[in-house]
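B., you asked whether I could sanity-check this one before it goes into the benchmark set. Here's the sequence:
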Amino acid sequence: MSTTPDEHKADAPDQIRCAIITVSDTRTEETDTGGAEVVRFLEEANHLVVERKIVPDEPDRMRPLLEWLRDADQVDAVLMTGGTGVSTRDQTFETVTALITKPVPGYGELFRMLSYQEIGAAAMLSRATGGLMERTVLLTMPGSRAAVRLAMGQVILPELNHLVREARR
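And here's what the prediction gave me:
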């Protein structure tokens, strides 16, 4: 007997344990407005922020952190802001996709579609991506507060519990 998405959501955990990573060479916790928005959204939804880190857009710095979070028992989801563009400095997409064991292409597609409605064709420059690192959810988004509000409010939070439920199965 098949189940519906609503039945899956009803069976999903109520509280998700999240790590937030801001990818930036210049931000500090005081100036990290994108990361602060992620925290606000998660806390308003009664989720837990178990880690918050700022890391430069360097694969050698991101990869060990992501592997550690993937293997941490207290982390269900890793949410990343920043580093999703196409400039030569932006390496988040390449680093993240090398660690994803099960891609969720609909996340980036949906984010760009909704972003297009707000900013037009410039939405194609975002390389927001997501998937599973084994059983840990990993989602990236641009670092601007507007992009974080869009991603968190319209894409991530509506499905985060469901996504974590599926990742655990």
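One thing to flag: Residues 5-168 form a domain with the Molybdenum Cofactor Biosythetic Enzyme; Chain A fold (CATH 3.40.980.10). Otherwise nothing jumped out at me.
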